[in-house]
Amino acid sequence: MPFTLRAWQPDDLPSLLRYANNPEIARFMTDQFPYPFTEEKGRGFLSMATSHSPQRIFAIDVDGQAAGGIGLHPQTDVQCKNAELGYWLAQPFWGRGIVTEAIRQTVDYGFRTFDITRIFARPYGTNIGSQRALEKAGFVLEGRFEQTLFKNGEFLDELIYAVRRRG
Prior knowledge:
It comes from Hymenobacter nitidus. By secondary structure, this protein is α+β, with helices and mostly antiparallel strands.
């Protein structure tokens, strides 16, 4: 299914609220991405997503609507050569290879744009779809921390996947 990565726009708020306000999305995200996903949260997200230069957070545009997001979060201090990758996609578009390709494009962009050598992602142990997308995009499982995260009343494993700059 064709998609594009593009900058978030203020007029993406209706599609952001429509797609992000889903407990099936929120259960795989940190509590900073809650359910319900309110208009206030949406406005805050759009303000944050459009505040960086160079751009770090992109809308995943499917058929002219923001159907998800993907972003890089460069780290600081002794982690300064790393960036964390985060993403989500609207449930109607799951299983179509969109996230895997969006990850590949974002990794290419990240290594071209930022002075980093490693991009990592931290999916929950319960998020098999995310793990598969990362693996298909060339990420390697570096570690598993058992029962370290607490989400919706249960302990979850935290996985660390990463890809390193080639050359």
